[in-house]
Design brief:
The complex is a heterodimer of chains A (864) and B (140). Chain A is mainly alpha-helical and 864 residues long. Chain A is 62% helix and 5% strand. Chain B has an 8-stranded antiparallel β-sheet, covered by helices on one side. The radius of gyration of chain B is 17 Å and the shape is globular. The chains are: A mainly alpha (864), B alpha+beta (140).
Chain lengths: 864, 140
């Protein structure tokens, strides 16, 4: 019945149904086409699209001839700056004026630097104008007062290269004084806070030699010089010359940055690793690599604990058979410091590290921090050999093209394999082989272009054996590849040429970073990447139906080898930086608004909701405030990710799911760090506020407490009780809005001190003493009454017992004396027990001895 | 359905084992428990040796807990924090009515947070923003 009704319905509404279905199909097709444009075969990540839409020229300056000594010239560094600036989005809508500099007139990199790090530029104790400057370098040079002008260039170069800022401010993060230029209770000149030119040159070299993972870490914000060789920790004197703060700063003093010392690179890298350790660990779902069980399993360090009950101090000691004698003595203090120093030495003392540390640990470090690249001579050999051979494989079509245009003959494809030997002297292959030597020279020269490692490798006498090995093996690899092509030409014919052209086309058009982003948070990202890339290639070749399946397989593997996962993953920070940099201001704004909103809606009675992303670090933070931040954090980050991206003036894009997932990790770290910076600021502000508040109000409070004195005297049962009553009264006039102190802390820090001062006033102290003595006397008389009753009863009972069972040999007087002694002891015991039931007992402690002494005094009268 | 029941049973059994261990650790009271009793509760330690900090003290190590012993009596218990205990904020809020002290330990960004009247101390690592150790100690 139902079926018939349905059939009738269909037949009746045939036409309408057809139209509906067709309409649905069309809509779906449009959506699919639109999606495929963003996610199709040639999909590019948002980051690549941003890069492509630069206003500035993409012309790379890397083929310039450079000085092969370490001379840094303004021309050299400004060319490098132009190259780096071209990596950033160049359109911006940053408006406003920074100390006389119109931001709209600067390029985006410079405008962003001033907005993000303007608070780290200049003498903070006076107002300055830079209206004569039309770029950031001028601003920086004015601060340095550098006539050579190189200091400003190097500082700006450091910012572009690493994403962090060399501070030009005379405020040290976390310093005790609120005044700029005051550190360790001493006043310092502004110049004492600035890196000098020689020191900056070291930073330049550091920037040039840092591996990709060290660059543009979202957590590292700035580097500060501690003036006049003072300690890097103001609260306790530290023998170490660098220190990193969880809020994103590195502090460094002269002992590390002095150009006569060799430990600058290792020390700086060691501190930067703190931030990389954390971000790498978070990606692996732990808090950091150095605290992970995985790292502990490698190094087999054992921890011994101790707690000193006298001083209430915890002590720990790490014991291990595995140490690095070439490392600092600090490295033995924890697995974290040990890892930090190993990683820094892996980069800057690779030979020494290799000689002293086991291979499995080296491999672990190489994988986690260096994308399996090493920096000793053998490592450099491997690196340059891989890069050079990859360069050939990428540009193979171009290398062959000139020769194929000149010499390619169709008869070539008619020969069988047995006749290969006769082809060796074919002019086509000779032509290509003749290019190899020039290629090797050119690529080696390109490597050396402003690369310290390459110059060392290709020029230093120490490395000649490896250099020769590199040249020989590169020559071999390329010529083997040429022979391989010869065989392929025999087997597959002209599709080999077609395949090479397609390969070149694919490599120039396709951006593998979109696959990397898709696989970023998968369990096995490398495997995911390879299989997805193979799939993309399959689709690519399918649309270009010119290759046989067999050769398609060959060329697919070639392309996968040219685009290895490690090379793409090296650029993780680089991929995200453009997008992140352009949105840092938005992050700051969003974080500031969230912070303000949550302070207004905090709740003193709230219970902490776990788990926490924002935890308040080591500070007490109002639970309501913590809960509010954590509840709203994800939503705020989603809103940031929802923002459209403008490519040029017209094109608007939104992030794909995998791009959002990739970026949300970075956003969260940056967002939390910004929040933590606000936290630190406000903790200090609140502390200072309370200091001033109680200092200014103390007189009033003491005056008011005078009115309550009779009440205190009436109720207080001890000095402590008096204090407690007083503190309760003082706390009723605490300020209402505070977030970073518990009430107990305020009581202990301010309430008790005020009450202690109040109680010490002579008149109050005297009255208090009188009142307490009077109360105590009353208590004693109550206890005495109880005691006497007990004594009487006990004595009577004892005496009667003896009289009843009297041994006629004993005298009655002896019995009476003996019973009184027993009765006294028992009564005293009962009285002390009874005292514990008194209401006053909890307020008046340790009086048992006093009570006992009192009754000892009346003992003689009782026993007589 | 059978599989679900089996899984539920397995999870329950493992939970009980886990709870059992925590229960036994909870029975060790610094200043009162004898080391022999502790070993009976926790089984044999992985390591025991004279403390490098105090000659009279002995250090006992298990996988999840360490004890320091003097004159046969446990003086301090050191264990890892559970999931909610790894935030210093948890400890600050939980004991906000009590006096507490936060002090820096050496140069490693380690801090010690002590609630004196509860004889509890926790060690906080500022680098990782996590509590790494919970310590119960004997009263003076």
């Amino acid at each position: 019945m139902q079926q018939n009704k349905f059939k009738k319905f269909i037949n009746k509404n045939n036409k309408i149904l057809s139209i509906v279905i067709l309409f649905a199909f069309v809509i779906t097709a449009i959506a699919a086409i639109d999606t495929s444009k963003r996610n199709g075969i040639y999909s590019k990540s948002v980051f690549t699209l941003l890069n492509e839409n630069k206003i500035a020229s993409r012309k790379i300056a890397s083929f310039l001839k450079t000085n092969y000594n370490d001379e840094i010239t303004i021309k050299l560094i400004s060319d490098q700056i132009s190259e780096l600036e071209s990596n950033f989005e160049q359109t911006h809508n940053i408006k406003g004026n920074w100390k006389g500099v119109e931001l709209a007139q600067l390029n985006s990199s410079q405008a962003r630097l001033l907005v993000l790090y303007g608070h780290l530029i200049g003498d903070q104790s006076k107002s300055q104008s830079f209206k004569d400057c039309n770029d950031v370098v001028c601003v920086l040079n004015k601060c340095y007062n550098d006539k050579n002008k190189l200091s400003g260039y190097i500082t700006y170069f450091w910012y572009l290269k690493t994403g962090s800022m060399l501070s030009l401010s005379n405020i040290i993060p976390g310093q005790k004084s609120k005044y700029p230029g005051e550190y360790f209770k001493r006043h310092h000149r502004y110049e004492d806070y600035l890196f000098n030119l020689n020191e900056l040159k070291r930073f330049y070299k550091l920037a040039k030699t840092l591996p990709p993972k060290f660059l543009h870490n979202p957590l590292l914000k700035s580097i500060h010089k501690i003036p006049n060789e003072l300690s890097v920790t103001e609260s306790l004197k530290s023998e170490y010359c660098t220190r990193s703060l969880s809020t994103g700063q590195i502090l460094i003093n002269n002992n590390c940055v002095d150009t006569t010392k060799e430990n600058f690179f290792v020390n700086m890298a060691s501190q930067m690793i703190n931030f990389i350790d954390k971000t790498s660990g978070l990606k692996n779902k732990t808090t950091s690599i150095s605290t992970s069980q995985k790292w502990r399993n490698y190094i087999l360090w054992n921890q011994e604990d101790f707690f000193d009950i006298e001083s209430l101090s915890y002590k720990q000691k790490w014991t291990t058979h595995l140490t690095g004698e070439f490392l600092s003595k600090e490295s033995n203090q924890s697995p974290t410091i040990f890892l930090r120093e190993l990683v820094a030495n892996y980069r800057y003392n690779p030979k020494i590290l290799k000689e002293n540390i086991t291979e499995d640990i080296q491999d672990f470090i190489a994988k986690e921090f260096f994308h399996n690249q090493s920096y000793d001579d053998e490592g450099l050999y491997n690196t340059f050999l891989n890069q050079a051979s990859n360069e050939w494989f990428i540009n193979e079509f171009d290398q062959w093209k000139e020769c194929t245009d000149k010499f390619l003959r169709l008869e070539l494809f008619a020969h069988t394999k047995r006749n290969v030997a006769t082809l060796i002297e074919d002019p086509l292959f000779n032509c290509v082989e003749n290019k190899v030597t020039k290629f090797i020279e050119q690529v080696s020269e390109n490597f050396q272009d402003n690369d310290f490692e390459a110059r060392y490798f290709f020029q230093d006498k120490q490395v000649i054996p490896y250099k020769n090995k590199y040249e020989n093996n590169l020559d071999k690899i390329i010529k083997e590849n040429i022979i391989k092509r010869k065989f392929e030409l025999q087997t597959y014919g002209k599709e080999v040429i077609i395949a090479q052209k397609l390969k070149a086309q694919f490599l120039s058009e396709y951006d593998p970073s979109s696959i990397y982003i898709k696989c970023f948070q998968k369990e096995f990202p490398s495997k995911c990447y390879k299989s997805n890339l193979a799939l993309v290639l399959k689709k690519f070749f399918y649309t270009n139906l010119k290759l046989s399946k067999a050769y398609q397989k060959v060329i697919t593997q070639e392309i996968i080898d040219i685009l290895p996962f490690e090379n793409i993953s090296k650029n993780t920070n680089h991929l995200a930086k453009n997008y992140l940099q352009s949105n840092l201001l938005e992050v700051k704004k969003s974080a500031r608004e969230l912070w303000a909103y949550c302070q207004e809606s905090s709740n003193k009675n709230a219970t902490l909701i776990l788990p926490l992303k924002f935890s308040g670090n080591k500070y007490f933070v109002d639970a309501g405030l913590v809960n509010c931040i954590n509840l709203k954090l994800d939503n705020n980050i989603d809103q940031l990710l929802d923002r459209p991206i403008f490519i040029g003036k017209e094109k608007i894009l939104y992030l794909t799911e995998s791009e959002r997932s990739f970026l949300s990790f970075y956003y969260e770290q940056i967002y939390l760090q910004v929040i933590n910076n606000y936290l630190l600021e406000d903790v200090v502000n609140e502390k200072n506020y309370f200091k001033n508040y109680f200092s200014s109000k103390k007189g009033d409070i003491l005056y008011q407490l005078g009115y309550y004195t009779p009440l205190f005297l009436e109720e207080a049962l001890s000095n402590d009780h008096f204090q407690k009553l007083c503190v309760e009264k003082v706390s009723s006039i605490y300020p209402q809005n505070y977030y970073f102190h518990s009430k107990t802390e305020l009581d202990n820090t301010y309430g008790r001190k005020i009450c202690s001062d109040f109680a010490k006033q002579p008149k109050i102290a005297e009255k208090q003493k009188e009142a307490l003595n009077e109360k105590w006397n009353k208590i004693l008389s109550k206890l005495e009454k109880y005691f006497r009753n007990e004594f009487k009863a006990s004595n009577q009972k004892c005496t009667q017992t003896y009289i009843d069972g009297l041994d006629k040999r004993q005298g009655l007087d002896d019995v009476k004396f003996h019973c009184k002694e027993i009765a006294f002891k028992k009564s005293l015991q009962y009285t002390l027990e009874e005292w514990k039931d008194f209401e006053e007992y909890s307020y008046i402690t340790n009086r048992e001895e006093t009570i006992s002494k009192h009754f000892e005094q009346i003992k003689q009268t009782l026993i007589k | 359905m059978e599989k679900l029941r089996l899984m539920a049973l397995i999870v329950t059994v493992f939970s009980l084992f886990g709870c059992d261990r925590q229960y036994k650790i909870g029975k060790i009271i610094p200043g009162h428990t004898n080391i022999k009793t502790a070993i009976q509760l926790l089984n044999s330690p992985i390591e025991s040796k004279e403390s490098t900090f105090k000659k009279e003290a002995t250090f006992y190590k298990w996988k999840d807990i360490n004890l320091v012993v003097e004159n046969e009596i446990v003086t301090s218990v050191h264990r890892r924090p559970s999931s909610h205990e790894q935030y210093l904020q948890f400890w600050r809020q939980h004991y906000k009515e009590h006096n507490s002290i936060l002090k820096k330990l050496d140069s490693q960004n380690l801090w010690q947070f002590t609630i004196e009247n509860k004889n509890i101390s926790v060690i906080y690592d500022e680098n990782s923003d996590r509590v790494t150790k919970v310590i119960y100690y004997a009263a003076k």
